[in-house]
Amino acid sequence: LEARRPLGTVCQVAWARYKTVSVVARVVAQPTEDAEALKLRLLERLYRTLSPLPSMLHPGGWGFGQPLRTSQLRDLFLAEPGVRAVERVRVRVDEVPREVRALAADASQPRTFYAGGDETLFRSGNAGEGWEPVGRFSGEQVEVVEAHPSRAGWVAVASRLRGETPTRSRVSLSRDCCETWEPATATLDEVKDLAWTVREGTPVLFIATVAGLFEWVLKPGTAPRAVLVDPAQPGMGFCAVATASDVGGGVCVAVAAMEQGGVLLSDQEGRAGTFWHIGLRGQGVRVLEVQREGPNAFLWAGLGTFHEEETGAGCMRWELSGGEPPPGGWRAFNVGWEGGSCLSLAFAGATVHAGTQWAGVLSQEGGPGPSVWRRPEEHSRSPVYALASQGGGFPVLSGRPKGVFRRSRGSECDEPCSQWEFSEEVTVPPTWLLCSGFHELEVGGEDEEC
After folding, report:
1. Contact at 8 Å (CB) between 279 and 207?
2. Residues pairing with 29 in the sheet
3. Highest taxon of the source (predicted)?
4. In angstroms, rounded to a whole number, what is the distance separating the alpha carbons of residues 151 and 213?
5. For residue 404, what is the enclosing H or E element?
6. What are phi and psi of 37, to 5 degrees?
7. pLDDT tens column, 403-426
8. What is the distance between the alpha carbons of residues 133 and 154, in angstroms, rounded to a whole number?
């Protein structure tokens, strides 16, 4: 390859990644057929076919990015002499997101999302139809994932180190959509949130920790450095951070202080000494996110509660207007709110989605009329730890204790989309291969029970 590469190009070779699948099915044998012998022949068919290596049954091998459909498996089984019928064909995958506390949408890659579950980071290139592990953080719990809004491929992950007292976190970086990871990492006191921006053409990562705010200017040999937000409280910790760029190239950075310390804002790229207090002292701000409507940008703050069973206070909104306080200051959005604390926020155009402690995902439409939160008729009482949506607005993905859920356009139902068993199709990324796992076949007669 090196000898054949065109001038001006670089050749890089890496091992192909693969997705392991296991087939589960019931096969009805012809009355005169030996069931055990038929089962062995069917298993051989599966192992020879579901492999990237060529075989007599599949001369070209299973190609890169080729999905596996249950209809193909039915045809494969029925092609074997002695098979009378095929029932209940399902395909299982080895790994899917579970206990998802972190979600992020990739603004540069259509239909691409990241989900953190336990010690693994997953990626989906088809809006949650399928998930593949792209990062493993052994002995750690993935807590935050953030994709850069304007630099394609840049992703940051904060993972909590298990067994550490006091709690410590590690920040890891990727520049190629998590295909590879940078060798340099940063270990800090417990990380609560991450936010990206660009300063003088260089990506900058803001890190909110229990010990203060840090910024990591991503140049060779650099490390995170502390940013003094409030000189009167140099040890102040922060639970959330958000950034916003305006059309003129300016950057705002907002942070939510712990222990109900309110929200502070900088309109000068988050530099030390440029933050000023914009209110919400005494209110438990849990989340900060920025919503864009055309040229306008709004800072949303999700409020928490002292007790999980409380109804909650909803959200507050602040219009970002170049360092000047907006008329009226913070605007409350609490009509129709229920579900306790606001744990996460995402936006689909003018529509706001909020993840709650016990009422699922609440939504409200933007516009000049009254703003009222509404909840789906059917909802789980499990907490919605994270929400993510892309620029088009839908689908909206939510991270919960049982995995990832998806809400499609025109629907108010959140359907699970990180299941490990499929009845129709298993997808494979374009640069991945498919390999056989352990297949489970029940072979018997027409009247035999599985």
Report:
1. no
2. 83
3. Bacteria
4. 22
5. strand 403-407
6. -65, -40
7. 999 998 877 789 999 999 999 999
8. 17
Nearest in space to 179 (alpha carbons), one of 119, 134, 232, 217: 134
Q: pLDDT digits over 247-283, tens only? A: 677 899 999 999 999 999 999 999 999 999 999 999 9
Per-domain residue ranges of the chain? 17-94+423-444, 100-419
Phi, psi of 77 (to 5 degrees): -70, -45
**64: Cα separation from own chain's centroid:** 24
Question: Both tokens of residue 346?
Answer: 């995402």
Fill in the amino acid letter for 444: G
First-to-last CA distance in the chain? 52
Q: What are phi and psi of 212, to 5 degrees?
A: 135, -175
Map tokens 């900060």 to a residue: 288
Name 232's Cβ contacts closer than 8 Å, sequence gap at least 6.
Answer: none
CATH architecture group of domain 100-419: 7 Propeller (2.130)
Place of tokens 């180190």: 161
Residue 119: band (very low, low, confident or very high) from pLDDT cuts 50, 70, 90:
very high
Match 């060779």 to its residue by tokens: 220
